[in-house]
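Many introductory courses stop at the sequence. We go one step further.
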Amino acid sequence: MTGEEYDDATTEDERDDSATGTGHATDDDSATDDGHATDAERDYFERLVDRPALRDYLADRLGDADEFAVSHHAEGHSNETLFVTWGDRELVVRRPPPGETADTAHDVLREYRVMDALQDTAVPLPGTVLACEDHSVVGSDFYVMERVEGDVLRHAEPDRFGTPAARQRVGEELVDTLAAVHAVDYEAVGLGEFGRPEGYTRRQVERWTKQLEWAFERTADERTVPKLREVGDWLAEECPTDHERTLVHGDYKLDNVLFAPGAPPELAAVFDWEMATLGDPLADLGWMLSYWRDPGDPDPATPELTATFMAAEGYPTRRELVERYERATGIEYENDRFYRALAVYKLAALGEMFYRRYLEGNSDDPMYPKMEHRVPDLARRAERIIDGDEPL
């Protein structure tokens, strides 16, 4: 798929510990990693993977293995993650969720393409293994990558990072790696046709508005969110007319990276590239900042998705992260209200898409029904950013 055909990445976010060191499978044919799945969980697992077909596929391409085990890693809320033991190798399979999705959502082969292209760059990544378009294997496109051991800082920091110096380094590693993503020579790595960087930011506003409208087709029967439409109108009016052109990750934040075992903190892998394209690097920075917590911030609109531990002593503030990014890249972070409001608008659109999937019975994720109330909360947060009530 070319960048022109795809336009910009508009896939659903997010939130997967795609190759963490947790959740190893222990049983050759188990549907879950603990053997205590409910009937609904087992049914959903069976929709995700045909284990004999996957075994045959891997054997044909990687050679036979004495041990084969599969488990569902249920921490993510968008593309699905399966942990696979194949002999002495620990692998990860990424596939879309079952059921109807919006437009180009969940393009895992696009995710694979960018990860494969970046293997020899300064961006830390899991090793890529295989990509498959044959839906007879698991019922969808999917890809296979190596599993990376370490910690994803989703809800809390590991004890070894519980000092001011380590906390500061976590923030520095996070922003330095984002700078490395934006420094990639995308032409040289074969991604010159990966997207259309000119006009990216305006198309983001238009595309996420379109995604919202797709979700509203169903969710408006339950409740409406008029404030979100007002935010979308403001973004359309205030959208920057020009911007830098780089590779963008599209979902870059603290819980989409993994830190290696040991200390001091070392960022070992960046995950969840499904929204990567060529575009405006400040959209990436605004997204990362929208998840970062400073002391004194209001309670998060989406507590299920927003950690608060980085308000502890030692973590850099949002402004300090911006200053480090500007020094590393030479790119000035202008229009902060726009970029952070756009980030919250995108998250609200994703939440509304999740809510539609829940209403249509296409997900067993317990977070999805909460979007009935979380999305209106996000709309109010975007409004606060626009009004200057949540400053950088």
